[in-house]
Write a structure and sequence with these properties.
The protein has about 270 residues and is mostly helical. About 70% of the residues lie in helices and about 0% in strands. It is built from ten helices and no strands. Helix 7 packs antiparallel against helix 8. It is globular. The chain starts with 8 loop residues before the first helix and ends with a helix.
């Protein structure tokens, strides 16, 4: 299941140039040595590094051509994307939500490009590896909890796990268990939704490509252009919703509802 792609030349080069260094670092940390025949630097890390370098290069290019009077098409597109994300943060969190723009835009951009990278012959989508989707999900999970604690303090943030204001005392332990399970399930939901969709698409394209090359996989690849963007949007939307539930607790308590519960139907209604 892990090797649905032939090793890409860039992966081989990366292991040739840096594999010995990485392996020495692994041994210095008393980790198990890489099994024979397995890449020291896995393909999804190489693909992630390619995306990172592409964003760095793009950033320098756009920065060197920024213009207020005569913006380029790239600048207009990027400005529209930024304004869209700002609007989403303003709608759910308010003006203070704009400070989360770097996290939301970075994750969204990485996932979007990562989803589409698998459509390039010889490459693979890093988001088709569960280690990558879990890494993105646990980053969001840890971050919104830290922001909730930073915004309201540890005691007040943990208090909303006990249920809405006015809940009977005997219900607090039950509500606490439900909340803990709900928040843990968010990591599983974010991880498996993104991984399952992208991995499934790549597997279908690969199988159809082996059976009937060229023409039959094309409709699936065209469909992937839609689903790849949709999955990135869903991940960003849920990230904003979880941040809203963590940092806007007081607003929800004033209305007698838990912050994240007010958006649970939206979360459940998100298409798989």
């Amino acid at each position: 299941m892990d090797k649905i792609h032939e090793p890409h030349l860039l992966v081989q080069w990366a292991n040739l140039l840096f594999g010995s260094i990485v392996e020495s670092a692994r041994l210095a940390l008393h980790l198990k040595p890489t099994p024979p025949g397995q890449d020291v630097i896995p393909d999804f890390l190489v693909m992630s590094a390619i995306i990172f370098l592409a964003f760095v290069v793009l950033g320098f290019i756009v920065r060197s051509r920024l213009s207020v009077d005569n913006p380029s098409r790239w600048q207009v597109v990027l400005e529209d994307l930024v304004l869209s994300l700002q609007g989403m943060l303003d709608e759910y969190i308010g003006p203070k939500g704009r400070k989360y723009l770097p996290l939301v835009s970075s994750l969204g951009g990485y996932i979007l490009v990562g989803n589409y990278l698998g459509l390039v012959p010889g490459f693979m989508a890093p988001t088709s590896n569960i280690n990558v989707t879990f890494g993105c999900s646990i980053t969001v999970w840890v971050y919104y909890h830290l922001e909730g604690i930073r915004t309201h303090g540890l005691f007040r943030y943990l208090k909303h796990f006990c249920g809405p204001a006015g809940v009977p005392v005997f219900m607090i332990p039950i509500m606490l268990v439900i909340e803990l399970i709900s928040h843990a399930a968010r990591v599983v939901s974010l991880t498996l939704r993104l991984f399952g969709n992208i991995f499934g698409e790549e597997l279908v394209i690969l199988i159809l490509g082996m059976l009937v090359p060229l023409f039959i996989p094309m409709p699936i690849m065209l469909l992937s252009l839609i689903t790849g963007g949709l999955q990135a949007f869903i991940f960003v939307l849920l990230t904003v919703i979880y941040l809203q539930g963590a940092v806007v607790v007081e607003h929800a308590e004033a209305h007698g509802h838990d912050a994240h519960d007010s958006h649970v139907p939206l979360d459940e209604a998100v298409p798989a």
